[in-house]
Write a structure and sequence with these properties.
Length: 119
């Protein structure tokens, strides 16, 4: 379960880094995924949120599948180990924000950190 949640967190963090990296003209996503979604030239389209939505949805769906797999495995985990899996709440929260704002990573609401999740 921890492995699946770790992968989901990594994918969500990759999504969260896109606006910052795009501003620096950098992309740290697999080229085959970008080409699949018609990102062939990266000139002026790095901040075009409409082009990013399909890429983000694809990555978010993959993260969501990992969270689902982790949930299936929680029945086999000792209750003492549950605190190690609490970051699933952060992953779920960010995936819900992405869905609510149509996978627009450049929207200020999807970039905001919820302090209530930190504590």
């Amino acid at each position: 379960a921890a492995g699946h949640l770790g992968k989901a967190l990594g994918l969500v963090n990759s999504i969260r880094s896109i606006p910052h990296l795009a501003a620096e003209r950098k992309i740290l996503l697999p080229l085959d995924l970008l080409k699949l979604h018609n990102f062939t030239e990266f000139g002026g389209q790095l901040e075009d949120s409409s082009k990013w939505a399909t890429v983000i949805r694809d990555i978010a769906d993959h993260a969501d599948r990992h969270v689902s797999e982790a949930r299936k495995l929680t029945k086999t985990i000792l209750k003492q180990a549950y605190p190690a899996l609490l970051f699933a709440v952060v992953v779920d929260h960010h995936l819900a924000l992405l869905r609510r704002y149509n996978y627009d990573v450049f929207n200020a609401e999807t970039r905001r950190t919820s302090l209530s999740l930190v504590f």
